[in-house]
């Protein structure tokens, strides 16, 4: 019985301390960017915020260190600045007008640097590794070391590739990609263009511009393409 009272007393004490801590630190008096995410949750009353206020708060103050330096140079805050394409697509709610579509497609096509001569597929095993890795330019207290952990291509978050692993469903399934389409130079060039800058075919797509933004090299794209087209690849089994 005594044990029972003791544990109730303990819980009451913890609650009292929590009430004092939460009550004693009003939002205005702390700079939430100095806190870790868990501490931010303890001092900020999300229930008092409108959805817009909460979105604003989570993006600009929610523990992300937006003034920290990032790997590509500059600071994290600069990643929030939209380029021209992103501004058009945001304003059009991803439904560009016919004129906007034409402009986006033309600019995306012009951005693509194709390999010289015929497209020759790379190594599907390397490609598979990249397609399934999300290791990238993360916002983190310490920078990702790309010498130890090569950059991933993050495709798996949006695409299904083969029966051996479960991928995402934001984009269409790419199961049987090469088997279904063949490997003519025309289809290889088209696919290279999609991976390099998918707005060349799908204006205002959600698919990242990994070639045009310098995240994937030509060689890496050709390895990923081998994963899509090689008859030996699990994608085509
Ligand atoms: C953020 C989500 C996302 C990521 C990451 C992504 N894609 Fe996509 N992808 C899409 C969407 C969505 C489409 C469909 C095009 C559209 O209508 O926007 C697409 C279309 C495609 C297509 C054309 C499919 C077809 O049937 O014609 C290919 C090929 C493709 N993606 C390959 C890749 C590869 C390879 C990667 C990794 C380098 C990748 N994608 C990363 C979202 C993504």
Task: Please explain how this structure is put together.
It is a single chain. Helix content is 42%, strand content 0%. It is an all-alpha fold. The chain has 2 domains: 2-64, no CATH class; 96-236, Cytochrome Bc1 Complex, Chain D, domain 2 (Orthogonal Bundle). Bound molecules: heme C (HEC).
Structure at a glance:
With 237 residues, the chain is an all-alpha fold.
How are the SSEs ordered, and which strands pair?
Layout: H1 2-24, H2 37-43, H3 51-60, H4 84-91, H5 98-111, H6 124-131, H7 177-181, H8 185-196, H9 218-229
Q: What name is given to the CATH topology of the largest domain?
A: Cytochrome Bc1 Complex, Chain D, domain 2
Supply Rg: 24 Å
Q: What is the CATH-assigned architecture of the largest domain?
A: Orthogonal Bundle
How many domains is the backbone divided into? 2
The poorly predicted ranges are: 8-26
> What distance lies between the first and last C-alpha atoms, to the nearest angstrom?
66 Å
- Shape descriptor reads globular
In this entry the ligands are: heme C
The CATH superfamily name of the largest domain is Cytochrome c-like domain
CATH class assignment of the largest domain: Mainly Alpha
Mean pLDDT: 84
Count of individual beta strands: 0
Sketch the topology as an H/E string, one letter per element.
HHHHHHHHH
**Helix fraction?**
40-55%
Q: What is the structural class?
A: mainly alpha
Strand content: under 5%
How many DSSP helices? 9
Largest sheet: none
